[in-house]
Write a structure and sequence with these properties.
The chain is mainly α. 66% of the residues lie in helices and 0% in strands. The chain has six helices and no strands.
């Protein structure tokens, strides 16, 4: 098995080439072509082609967003459990103050730095992007798609 490259702020984003660079562009181009066809040759047939093309583009994008939302929910649960074991007692009661975005961003922080970063996230209301920028030692997440 090939060794995985350490994750950082610069390379943590996951791209699925078949989805991002083939399927999604094809369906978006199909929707645009359907609109152009409808403009050039208005009629029931071209209108239906356009509607079907737009529906397909929506389906393709939803097929991607629904699993990501489920992953975010699982990450939120994992991080709440992780934080409850890593944070000092006074800070544990404040875990519910973290937003879903903050929890998802904190998953990249190492166990050693997560207590201080979680405290900063709560007190300074850090955005997920700011949390990721503040991480010194990244805890990789290779499973996210």
């Amino acid at each position: 098995m090939a060794e995985k490259k350490p994750q950082t702020l610069a390379n943590y984003t996951r791209w699925d080439p078949l989805y991002h660079f083939f399927a999604l562009p094809v369906f978006l181009l199909l929707a645009i072509a359907g609109l152009v066809h409808f403009i050039w040759r208005p009629g029931l047939h071209s209108a239906l082609m356009f509607i079907v093309a737009v529906a397909l583009a929506i389906v393709v994008s939803k097929l991607r967003t629904y699993p990501l939302k489920v992953q975010d929910r699982v990450i939120r649960l994992e991080e709440r459990l992780r934080l409850s074991s890593l944070l000092p007692e006074p800070l544990r009661s404040r875990i519910p103050e973290l937003t879903q975005g903050q929890l998802v961003a904190l998953r990249f922080a190492s166990d050693a730095e997560v207590p201080k970063l979680a405290e900063r996230a709560i007190s300074e209301k850090l955005s997920p992007a700011d949390i990721k920028k503040a991480i010194q030692t990244w805890r990789p997440d290779y499973w996210r798609v």
